[in-house]
Amino acid sequence: MLLPLVALPGPSIAQAIPVATASPISTGFTVPSLAGTLSYAVSASQSYSTNYFGNYGVNSSTNLSGDLAFITNSALYPFNTVFSGGRAWSSSGQSSYDFFNLSMTQGIHVQHWTLALSDSVNYLPGTATTGLSGVAGVGDLGVNPAQPGTTSGAGALPSQGVLTGFSSRVSNSSSLSVGRPITGKTSMNASGSYSITRFLNDSTNLSTPGVNNDSDSASAGLSHRIDARNSTGGSFTYSHSSFSGADFGIPEPGYSSQSASLQYSHQFTRKFGMSASAGPQWNNTGTPGSSRALSVFANLTASYTGKFSQATMAYTRSSNSGYGVVGGAVSDSVSFSTSRTLDRVWLCALTTAYTQSSQLPSSTSLPFTFHTTVVGVQVSRAIVRSLSAYASYTLQNQSNQGIAAAVDLFSGLSNVTGFGLTYSPMAIHLGHS
Question: How is domain 3-429 classified at the CATH fold level?
């Protein structure tokens, strides 16, 4: 990603901000929306934190990171990828670390069939919090990675996880989805996925770095387009998770869940739409003496996309694998993310999420509840056409009740402030669209 910097002509670096009739001004990295387009960015920053990863006092780190996104122009075999990664050199006794997040999706259109194969892999020093990379203070807040087939691991708006201390982990998720129209308005769809999380032995708690987990899921359903603005559907999903890596008596083979849901989506205007799905969910921990418990699955999302602004609000309730700190949980999460461009040279971004995670029904462990809040805000300003500066602030707060078997859990309030520069030239068009 650094090679294109060498080829820049000298006058372009000293170029003043152009007038309104010139090419777009960069206020940071953006994911391209046009087929056959590649975009990239390089950022250098300095961040200061208090109680970050549970480290007391004030810590500072120097960060170098990069972002890249690409969309092919093939109609039959579309492919897109999004990458974000870098390194943070820390001081004050805090560990330095690398981080990256890579997502790839390959689409295939064969006659009436549509297939999408996706894979997402990330390496992080702790629970993902804000921005495209999931690391606070590196300048990628407000990036909208929403592309067809993009997984949540690539920066979509996921439900906020339970925060941990410094505990490096590698996660990988692969999925395959298949769709086929039955009539002009009705389609059938099916998908399957497999994901793993593995913790490394560099955590703040060396004896218990985290709860490794393996998860798989499968779903099938129907969707029906009522008219140009309304769609509905239904699906059934089965998922299973197993755990290892921490000697806390976590039951094997883990837990399984089944959910049946109805979906409805409505497009109010060209820019504003919403979708909702809900239904019963049955969870079973597999612990001797435990029975299948009835819960509720829900997912509601409203989004707005304009020329200079975008916003997404979501509510999710579902069981999950426990984010590496417990052997399964049920979480309620509310999240909101927005960004807006002002006067063509300013970009303001905000993201916030609150999650309550509770224990899956079990006869062998004590009940617990986590309360997790993350708020991030970033302001960026263009300096010249391809160079911008930013300032960001991230707040993380977590409290818990009744913890009996949590691993490397963060507790308290943390603040991260970041300042930096981002070089992000105009997107490069490859081939013919």
Answer: Porin (2.40.160)
